[in-house]
Model the fold of this input.
Amino acid sequence: MDRNDAIAASSAEARRAFYARIGALGMTPLWEVLGALVPPQPKSPVAPALWRYDAIREHVMEAGALISAEEAERRVLILENPALRGQSCITQSLYAGLQLILPGEVAPAHRHTQSALRLVLDGEGAYTAVDGERTTMRYGDFIITPSWTFHDHGNDGMEPVVWLDGLDIPLVSFLDAGFAEKSAAKSQAATRPEGDALARYGMNMLPLDHEQSASEPSKVFVYPFVRTRESLLGISKAAIDPHHGFKLRFVNPATGRSPMPTIGTFAQRLPKGFETRPSRSSDSSVHVCLEGEGRATIGEQSFDFGRRDIFVVPSWRTFSLAAREDSLLFSFSDRPVQQVLGLFREQRLD
Ligand code: 1HN
Done:
C-alpha cells in the first residue's frame, strides 16, 4: 500500500465510522446518494413488456372457475411489470389488470379515492354503472370511474366479458390518500337512464348552469369506441404527425382537461405501412392495440403486437411504432399529473 492508498483507506474507514455514528441518529450523508436522487434524466426501473392477449386469455378464463366475481369483489389478474414484481403495478404510478365477469355475475358496488378506467376487450353483454347510471360495455369502449364515485359491474349477457382496468393505485398509495367503502346495495339503483350523461355533457353542449374546476373529473363517463374511431378516421384526411400518426387525447368536454385528473388517455391511428419517428416522453405509458397489428420498438427491444395485446413503455425510453395493418391504439399514462406539476417533457427525435 502506498501513501495515497493508505490515506484513501483511512479516510474510507473514517467515513464508514462516521456514517455508522450518524446512522444511529437517523441521518445519512447526501453525497453518497446525490447522483441517484437527482439523475440527469429519468432512469426508470420500469421494464418494457408486452402481454399477448391470445396467450393470457385462457388463464383469465380459468380464474372464472376458481372464484366468483362476488367473492373476489373484483376478479382481476394484475399485469405486473416484470421489473416490479410483487408491487401490483405496471408502471411506478399506474396499475393495470384484466377483469373477467361471467354471465349472470355481479361485481358489487363500492367506491374509492383511486380513479379507474376500463377498456373493453372481449365479449358482449356486460354493463358498468357509475354514480347511478349504467352503460353497456362494447368492444373498445373507454369508461371511467372517477375518484369516489360508486361503481358496480354486471353481466346480463351470454358470454364472458373481459376488460382492461387502469387505476392510479400506486400514485394514491405514494400519497397515502386512499379511502374506500362498500355500498349497502350490491348493485346501484339507476337514477338516470342509460345515455343521459353522454347526451347532457358529451354532445358539444352542457347543462345551463354547469361549471367545473380544472381538477374535477368528466361527467361523461363513457367514450364509445364508435366515436373514437370516427374521430381518428375523420382526421386521417389531413396531414399525419410523423411521431404519433393520427393521435388525439380524450378530454373532459366541460374543461378540455383529461377525463380524470390523474390519468391521461389517448387514441391513435396508424395507417398500414406507416412508421412513426422515434420520440420519448417523461410519462411511462400503457398501450393497447384495438385494431390492426404492428411492431413497437422501445429502447433496444422490439415487440410485435396484434389486437388486444397490451404493452408498457417506460419513461424517457426511445419509442416508435410501425403498423403492418391499419392500426388503432389506446394508451394511458400519468401525463396530466406531470403537466400540472410542471414536470412533463417530450422529445421528438430524428
Ligand atoms: C376496482 O374497484 C376495480 O371497480 C377494478 O372494477 C380493479 C383494483 C384495485 C382496487 C379497486 C373495479 C381494482 C379496483
User: Anything to note?
Assistant: The first strand starts at residue 49 and ends at 51. The two ends are 51 Å apart (CA to CA). The chain has a mean pLDDT of 97.
